[in-house]
Write a sequence for this structure.
């Protein structure tokens, strides 16, 4: 990688884990101990300045580790929380002041909240300036696109749609994702290709996901984000994620400098409200 990241380069999806806080019922075990100091070292290696800390599945509705990290990271950090209908308006406002800007919905194994929680929760959270952050198998987009378009405000879809497995670019499910981008309220994170790719090594590594990234960049670069997914909890068996190599994969998929700057800095600045 011989390209310097732009000022304000932002990692929009990563997690912290503190062994002093046990995993919650319904969530996976902790993958290890991953601290703010560890992450700052990664930021320095890659040239990142801003970060969005996403509540991990391991902690379900206990946002304490995420909020402590936001306090330590300061003004260059934002958060994505997991709240419930029982979370008070005062608690939501306190999290907003702490830097939280989104609510996570995870429609896969270990998720605290699925798609059925979107309509009940998002109107109140939207009033506090939050968006919906959604992880799903992108193949269900043909069924749930209508639901997503009825949400108030913005919504973010993780990991290039996380199609399991990646489809062709003319597949109806991927076309549904492009149509969601056309609303101007949908955002897609270009991250974690190893979570869905059927090719994890060799000269064609991630090429099935790369085709989707290329189509997304050609269609709506103004609605795309980038992320590390550090510390890569529970990667595929035998695959060891390399953060520098994954950043290089993104740069290879996005050859135009103006698109890189949009995706790395300008777009997250708009969505997460960085000054």
């Amino acid at each position: 990688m011989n390209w310097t990241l732009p000022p304000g380069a932002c990692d929009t999806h990563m997690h912290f884990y503190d062994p002093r806080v046990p995993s919650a019922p319904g969530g996976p075990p902790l993958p290890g101990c991953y601290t703010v100091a560890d992450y700052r070292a990664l930021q320095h290696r890659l040239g990142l300045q801003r970060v969005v800390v996403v509540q991990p599945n391991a902690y379900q509705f206990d946002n304490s580790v995420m909020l402590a990290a936001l306090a330590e990271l300061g003004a260059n950090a934002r958060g994505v929380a997991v709240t419930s209908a029982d979370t008070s308006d005062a608690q939501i406002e306190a999290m907003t002041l702490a830097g939280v800007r989104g609510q996570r919905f995870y429609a896969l194994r270990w998720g605290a909240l699925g798609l059925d929680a979107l309509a009940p929760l998002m109107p109140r959270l939207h009033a506090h300036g939050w968006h919906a952050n959604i992880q799903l198998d992108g193949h269900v987009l043909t069924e749930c696109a209508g639901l997503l378009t009825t949400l108030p405000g913005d919504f973010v879809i993780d990991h290039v749609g996380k199609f399991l497995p990646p489809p062709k670019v003319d597949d109806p499910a991927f076309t549904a994702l492009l149509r969601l981008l056309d609303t101007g309220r949908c955002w897609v994170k270009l991250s974690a290709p190893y979570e869905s790719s059927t090719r994890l090594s060799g000269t064609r590594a991630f090429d099935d996901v790369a085709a989707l990234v290329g189509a997304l960049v050609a269609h709506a670069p103004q609605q795309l984000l980038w992320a590390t997914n550090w510390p890569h909890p529970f990667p595929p068996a035998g695959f060891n994620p390399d953060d520098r190599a994954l950043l290089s994969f993104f740069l290879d998929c996005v050859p135009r400098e103006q698109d890189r700057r949009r995706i790395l800095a300008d777009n997250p600045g708009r969505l997460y409200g960085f000054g």
